[in-house]
Amino acid sequence: MYTVFICLITLAAAPENLVANPGFEAVRGVVPIRWDLFVMPREGSYGEATQDQVYEGNYAAKLHNETAYDREPANNWSQSITTDMRNRELSVSGWAKTAGAAEAAIWIQCFQRRPLRILAFESTGTRTPVFGDTDWREVHMRVNVPNETDFIMVRCVILGEGTAWFDEISVIETLRRDAVPDAPRPEPRNAETPRPREQRTPPVDAADNAVEELRAMRQTLADANQTLRELNTALLAQISALQTEVERLREELRAVRPAVPQETPRTSAVPWPELPVPPLVPHVPRTQEDLP
To answer: What is the value of pTM for the model shown?
Structure first.
């Protein structure tokens, strides 16, 4: 009974993992549930839930690039966190393995919806890089979430050609930064102590503030346009790849479809040929000309 009580206390005190299906164990087909896959179309590049290399459990998330892209698209598995994590500190960790990859990392992107922009970006590749041929290695980092954040994207990313595996992803809130420490109280001043001269804050120029706000708005708009352009480029590439695949399937279907024999057109009934009347069979003439 005492042991069960201790276990319940431990479970109750354990911090909540904000990532759903963190070990990729829940799978539908070859896709882990609650995770989205992005792979820029290129022959030999793909992602799947796999059992050939796992750190723990039965499945891990795999990304493979047959060749390097001219411009790296950061193929990745992603999941959004919509829980309010504004002004929090997050502890991010996971396990990664590579085979000939330029880099495998967990990314955290903090987004604002309106206007759409990235407020903060962190990668485990900065502190715990995994690349080349590396066995399972734990990666981790701390992320401070800006107060304007509306949602957070967690990404398992591969760069360059090669293969990367990911398992046991964890994003945990470790600190609330909402509380502001109390301001220190001023020390009592003796009567003999002269009062310090008050320093006046120079007036703020309203025109300068307006210019800064305009610059910030223009930069926000430029960031949103860049994000939309990248999304459109990826979407067009996927549509082109799908069209190519559909045309290939059509060609294969034409090649294997059996030739359908043409139906012989129906013709009018052919008249039965007139045969001579056998002997000893009564014969009724059909026309006047047949009469004797």
So the answer is: 0.60
